[in-house]
Amino acid sequence: xxxxxxxxxxxxxxxxxxxxxxxxxxxxxxxxxxxxxxxxxxxxxxxxxxxxxxxxxxxxxxxxxxxxxxxxxxxxxxxxxxxxxxxxxxxxxxxxxxxxxxxxxxxxxxxxxxxxxxxxxxxxxxxxxxxxxxxxxxxxxxxxxxxxxxxxxxxxxxxxxxxxxxxxxxxxxxxxxxxxxxxxxxxxxxxxxxxxxxxxxxxxxxxxxxxxxxxxxxxxxxxxxxxxxxxxxxxxxxxxxxxxxxxxxxxxxxxxxxxxxxxxxxxxxxxxxxxxxxxxxxxxxxxxxxxxxxxxxxxxxxxxxxxxxxxxxxxxxxxxxxxxxxxxxxxxxxxxxxxxxxxxxxxxxxxxxxx
Length: 355
Hints:
Layout lengths: L1 H70 L10 H27 L11 H4 L3 H16 L6 H7 L2 H14 L5 H17 L13 H27 L5 H23 L1 H7 L7 H23 L2 H22 L6 H25 L1
Helix pairs in contact: 1-5, 1-11, 1-12, 2-9, 2-11, 4-8, 4-9, 5-12, 6-7, 6-8, 6-12, 7-13, 12-13
């Protein structure tokens, strides 16, 4: 009996000791857990802030892009060479990427993720999107023979449809039913905004403009999805290194375009013939827009990119009222409203899909 009593007391003491040790471990682990949670929240806020900044920058730059292109025309024509302008855009983007890398090398040193030296396998994927962007950028100038600046911004929203389909096919990223409904609304909004009540034609844009817009949407969508896959294949790789190699191939392809299309004009009139201050601002705008697009792909995705350009349409229309005397018709207002609802539904659908 005495032995059993002592044994029971030992058990009680052991249980009490375990309880004390458990409480001690909880008291130690709780602050660590809280610190980890706070660190995670801080990291999430930093990512959200960075994503918001690059998206707003892309929206503002895109909204002024079409206006600058229209402004750069004289008597309805481009006096400068479009191919040389595109070449300078790629060159400026390359220079800006190198400048950003130089600053990083100075502050952080050269690492495996920010060094320019790379392998043939990594570099060999960049010519494809560079070639696609070349054709798309050239079409971007010629489409203004058929559409005005606000109409161009609306037609650019077709990129959302092509991007959504290509997301499903290439990146295997499924979109929710609400998001697909938002795409359908976007089509309705684009069509409604193009209605011209004062004309006998159903659509204000001729079929040439629609064909060019559809081709641009397919090229932009495929190039965007492909570029995002390249950029996110190695997340730790510095975005400026990835941009540098993409823009180098862009320079090469645009140089070839100059030789094929405008060689005689450049040799006879000069490389910078027909350039003005507006042309320079347009080139700067295109360069910054291209870098903003790559940052959005790095820290967000292509869906965010194309919706940012959709919101830019509203800003373009408002500015065009004061600059070009553009009249906001009821059809344009209704179409813009439907597009805005589409943007909202798509964001709701994204949140629903993440839950």
